[in-house]
Amino acid sequence: MRHRIVVLGAGYAGAYSAGVLARRLDPADTEITVVNAAPDFVERLRLHQLAAGQDLKRLPLADMFAGTGVRLRVARVEAVDAASRTVTLDDGELAYDTLLYALGSTVADHGVPGVAEHAFHVTDRAAALRLRERLDGLGGGGRVLVVGEGLTGIETATEIAESRPGLKVALAARGEPGDWLSPAARRHLRRAFDRLGITVHAHTSVERVEPTGVMGANGTVLASEATVWCGGFAVHPIAADSGLEVTDTGRIVVDRTMRSVSHPDVYAAGDSVHTIGENGLPLPMSCASAGFTAMQAIDAIVGRLTGREISSTALKYYGNHISLGRRDAIFQLVDGRAQATSWCLRGRPASLVKNGILRGAAWSTGHPTFGMPTRRRRLAASPARSAETALA
Fold first, then answer.
1. CA–CA separation, 55 vs 132, rounded Å?
2. Which residues fall within 8 angstroms of residue 190, CB to CB, at 6 or more apart?
3. For 4, left (φ over 0), alpha (ψ -120 to 50), or beta?
4. Separation of alpha carbons 339 and 203, rounded Å
5. DSSP code of 77?
6. Where is this region: Disordered (predicted)?
7. Is the pLDDT higher at 75 or at 219?
8. The pTM is what?
9. How far is CA 318 from CA 133, 344, 361, in A?
10. Residue 222: which H helix or E strand, with range?
11. How far is the C-alpha of 376 from the C-alpha of 207, rounded, in Å?
12. Which CATH number applies to 3-104+236-317+360-391: 3.40.50.720, 3.50.50.100, 3.30.565.10, 2.40.30.130?
């Protein structure tokens, strides 16, 4: 019987991992199944563009995995039973020998009333399309309020303002937008807001979202025909309910190789994993972190199953890359403590670099057969014993 590897989620971490595992493991010994709720790979880092009205190229997962031997199962994950090594889907059940959990994250409402009922967000394709439809309905005028001063909030506000200049776009921030950036980057950000006509409501904490706007904690009322919630991310509760050890935020606790500390046949990558970077701090939820944790999980799974040494992937966070529309951006380098350095790249050069990174990420994920070896690794006689040896 072949060793059953199940990958949950086909985002940046999951889709990449499935393709590389297929490239490195012999199909005579392994059966790799990817479970994803949608049939397409979604470039999550471009969803604010989709919401603003731009069309993104469709990337069918079936085409991406064609010729790899990876099985695609389009279904929604409802539960994981780590004790019995089964996954409950909306169309049945799936058993595994090794599980790679990469379900990612969704919008976090932080308990603010009205977010679920009245706010839009851009954390998945369906949500981005709902916002796009709402913006279309506003026609040439209307007020849009983006709540959140982080990367997603800044990118969403600037993208909408640039793509739909007839709308009045505002940003509500608990502090100062971009206050973690270097002085030069902050100045550039303020100029971008001014250039795009974005009104910034700094030091405004939102207490409630209503159909016609938001109520601030200080009693301020901000009117809006479309409120976009960019207040952070939260992981799906599936991991916390599965029996896996998780943090108080629901992220899976792993060792240095992305292996669950409570269930050795489970690995995690992407937003759903809690791991400590080289600087001693938890890696943030980001595309870069998804890449590093996926590479480490792949090496660990392959090493343990084949009885080979597990290499160590550097877990570093290099900086913040912020789009400010299609032709402007900021890349802010950070130091070993994740604090902004004095160096940053701004304007068109930063935009070109970011677009190149996004294209590269989508291309590498969408071409898992690239460099496929003619001879792949056979499993050890007893992968379970090899796994225990690798942990020692």
1. 11
2. none
3. beta
4. 21
5. E
6. 372-392
7. 75
8. 0.92
9. 36, 12, 16
10. strand 221-223
11. 55
12. 3.50.50.100
